[in-house]
Each structure stands twice: as structure tokens, then as C-alpha cells.
Specification:
Helix content is 0%, strand content 54%. The chain has no helices and eleven strands. Strands 2, 4, 5, 6, 9, 10 and 11 form a seven-stranded mixed beta sheet that branches. It has a four-stranded antiparallel beta sheet with strand order 1-3-8-7, with no helix packed on it. The chain is globular, with a radius of gyration of 13 Å.
Amino acid sequence: QVQLVEIGGGLVQAGGSLRLSCVVSGSIFSTRTWDWYQQAPGKQRELIATITSSGSTRYADSVRGRFTISRDNVKKTVALQMNSLKPEDTGVYYCNAYYIGSRRYDWGPGTQVTVSS
């Protein structure tokens, strides 16, 4: 059974930094494309960063230049380095991957990020 656990969130002032990690267990990791999502208060979950099995990355316009996604295939973790944080980055952050067609793994608990102005 696949488990996704996101850690590293917290309360930070605008302009600060956080590093999130997603620990993956029970899954084929190295061949998957992994994503980070943000769910802002009162809004739907939104894709913000992607890393492919070859290490290629893509970002939403809202975070490009400020966030960096990376992966460690040995430790089976996906990280999201968040710099120059803004109040609009506040939300719960999740990782996930598609494993068959449009099927994603069950969502983990997420990690809360709160950016104060």
C-alpha cells in the first residue's frame, strides 16, 4: 500500500523560506513523475510543481523562480524548496503521482504552510 507523508510546513513571515519533503513508501518511485499541489483556503487543490523521472521540472506561473522541486530516488523523497514566500502561498501542500492513466495515489495528510504579511 502506497503512503505519502508531507512534512516541513510551518508559519513563516513573508519573504522567508521553507523546505517541504514528501516521503513515499510502498511505491515504485524512480520511474514516476511527482507533483506538488497547493490547496489555498477555500480553493481547490492546484498543481504547482512537477518533476519527471529524468529530472525535468515544470512550475506554475505563481511559483516559478521562487520554488524548486527536487527528488531523491534513493531516499524516495520529493522536496519543494520555497523561497521569497508570499501570503498567497498559504495553504496545505500535498505531493502525488499518477500511476495508471489518470489514477493518483490516495492523498496524504498534507503539510500546512502559513505565510504572514
